Amino acid sequence: MTLSASSADMSGAPSTPPAERSGRRMTAGPNRRGTPAGFVTRFVAYSIDAVVIVVLLSVITFVINAIGTLTFGDRTTIEPPQGWAVTLGSVSLVSLVYLTLGWWLFGRTVGKLVIGVRVVGADGRHPTFAMALVRALMYWVSAILALGFLWIAFTPARRGWHDRVARTWVVYDWEAHVRTYYDDDPLPPLDTEIAPTC
Questions:
Q1: Residue 181 included in any domain
Q2: Most Cβ neighbours (<10 Å): which of 5, 47, 159, 177?
Q3: Residue bearing the bigger pLDDT, 6 or 78
Q4: What is the spatial distance between Cα 173 and Cα 116, in angstroms, rounded to a whole number?
Q5: What is the pLDDT of residues 119-178, one digit of tens each?
Q6: What is the pLDDT of residues 51-76, one digit of tens each?
Q7: Helices (H), 3-160
């Protein structure tokens, strides 16, 4: 008489671990938390923040126009060049408040939150209010011919002019992710983790 199952099978314990039987292997991806964020990553975050600022400005403009219509019965139209000055001033003020409060209170804006980066000081904590304000004001200086932003791409610490003046860094806030691979999938090469600069 021949048994169809081994004694290990009859006892309820598998003869080989499930990971070995299925050819499954586990590996952890690189932990980029604390490493300098690159130019492309930061550019995407800037783009998202630009959209948020436009939306905020549109909402504020709508509310002001609505209040003006209810109060005076008609909208007041400002013709150029005064209209351009008002628009530039409004964009500057909304941007200044949005960026300063975001960095000071949370260490990030909406764009940086979506991308997974944050702004830190030399101690690794959120910037102070003064640091956040200086950083937001320096954005306009960095925007001159975009040189202050392009500086990020050509320096090892990935810091723009506004970062250096405000004494801040922009770093990744990504945790390492565990991924599952099978025997018929090639394992990716191991990444060398970059030491944090702050």
A1: no
A2: 159
A3: 78
A4: 5
A5: 999 988 999 999 999 999 999 899 888 899 999 999 888 999 999 999 999 999 876 455
A6: 999 999 999 888 887 887 777 766 55
A7: 7-10, 18-22, 39-72, 82-106, 110-115, 129-142, 147-150
187 falls within a domain: no
Total structural domains in the chain?
1
The amino acid occupying position 151 is W
- AA letter at 16: T
92-118: string of b/e by CB count within 10 Å (b at 16+)?
eebbeebbbebbbeebbbbbbbebbbb
Examine residue 167 and state whether it is found in any structural domain, yes or no.
Answer: yes
* Dist. CA 33–CA 1, nearest whole Å: 62
Which residue's entry shows tokens 């202050």? Answer: 148
Residue 68 has which token pair?
A: 């003006």
Amino acid making up residue 108: R
The domain of 78 spans 39-172
Whether residue 81 is preceded by a cis peptide bond, meaning omega within 30 degrees of 0, is yes
Which helix (H) or strand (E) is 165 found in, with range? helix 161-166
Residue 28's φ and ψ, nearest 5 degrees, are -105, 135
Structure tokens at 47: 């783009």
Q: Quick check: is 47 in a domain? A: yes
What is the pTM for the complete model shown?
0.69
CA pair distance 168, 147, nearest whole angstrom: 18
